[in-house]
Amino acid sequence: MRPFVFINAAMSLDGKISNEKREKVRISSKEDFEIVDRLRAESDAVMVGIGTVLSDNPKLTVKSEKLREERMKKGKQPNPIRVVVDSKARTPLSSRILNDEAKTIIAVSKIADRERVEKLREKAEVVVFGKDKVDLRALLEYLYSKGVRKLMVEGGSEINHSLIKEGLIDEIRVFYSGIIIGGAMAPTLVGGKSFDPPIRVELKSYEVLGNGVAIIWRIYRM
């Protein structure tokens, strides 16, 4: 068994989630930020790949005090569990994702440096799945066993690709912003190699939010 898994992302009109330098770029509207915060609050865990940790240094916590209080009234922690897919244990010890605002799980593979793993264990739970890269299916099954029923994935493009390739994504929510970033090498929603044949999705819903539109796509299952 695994959780319900959905990707949440914001991208420019030309399909970019960042610029060529992979710097953090404000893409979402104020309205979208508020909805994303609620989606995060409604999730049991939030997952990112190591690339997002290194480029954005996110906290992945719920910003709204009201939403945190709503979680606590339901007997939950103020913030969802934070999960990092980090095959080689490269998460910097100074990362904001390792602060004490929420529980953090770092998923590594067997090739991860043991000394690095032990240092990370001082600040987070470290689990090992996979030989040279994290076994995502095994990780999701582990999260399910820990009570995670709804998992929000917040990037980046490589982890998105891996999860879609493994058939582990149920829905994709994308906010298309009224900006153009450009750049042939700028990352898109899904990195990696092309899917052959392409992955089919079906439209579930859409909503105009400020100067952009949020669309939810459901992964098409044969």
What does this structure look like?
Belongs to the HTP reductase family. This is 2,5-diamino-6-(ribosylamino)-4(3H)-pyrimidinone 5'-phosphate reductase. GO terms for molecular function: 5-amino-6-(5-phosphoribosylamino)uracil reductase activity; NADP binding. Homodimer. Its EC number is 1.1.1.302. The protein has 222 residues and is of the alpha/beta class. The protein has a single domain, classed as Dihydrofolate Reductase, subunit A. 25% of the residues lie in helices and 24% in strands. The protein is built from six helices and nine strands; from the N terminus they run βαβααββαβαβαβββ. The protein has a nine-stranded mixed β-sheet with strand order 5-4-3-2-6-1-7-9-8. A hairpin with a 3-residue loop joins strand 8 and strand 9. The radius of gyration is 17 Å and the shape is globular. 36% of the residues are buried. The mean pLDDT is 96.
Instruction: Name the poorly predicted regions.
Output: none
In CATH, the homologous superfamily goes by the name Dihydrofolate Reductase, subunit A
N-to-C SSE string, H for helix and E for strand: EHEHHEEHEHEHEEE
Envelope shape = globular
Which CATH class is shown? Alpha Beta
What profile does the largest beta sheet have? Answer: 9 strands, mixed
- The helicity comes to 25-40%
- DSSP E strands, number: 9
Number of helices: 6
